[in-house]
Amino acid sequence: MKKQHLPQKVCLVCNKPFTWRKKWEKEWNNVKYCSERCRRNKNQ
């Protein structure tokens, strides 16, 4: 599948769009942050 056809979301911290990744396949509905860095900085 081409990258342009993958689902996208917007990060709750940095407000940048990010695309689906294979490692998130089983938990895509629960993914809220584009990176570990954003996840750690969610309260700042």
Query: Helical residue percent?
Result: 10-25%
Q: Which regions contain 5 or more consecutive residues with pLDDT less than 50?
A: none
Mind describing the biggest β-sheet?
Answer: 2 strands, antiparallel
What structural category arises from helix and sheet content?
Answer: alpha+beta
Radius of gyration: 11 Å
Question: Helix count?
Answer: 1
- What number of structural domains do the residues give? 1
Strand tally, please? 2
Order of helices and strands: EEH
Q: Which percent range describes the beta-strand content?
A: 5-15%
Overall shape: globular
How far from one another are the termini? 36 Å
InterPro entries: UCP037205
Pfam families: DUF2256 (PF10013)
Describe this protein's structure.
The protein is of the alpha+beta class and 44 residues long. It has one domain (3-40). Helix content is 11%, strand content 14%. Strands 1-2 form a two-stranded antiparallel ribbon. A hairpin with a 6-residue loop joins β1 (8-10) and β2 (17-19). It starts with 7 loop residues before the first strand and ends with a helix.
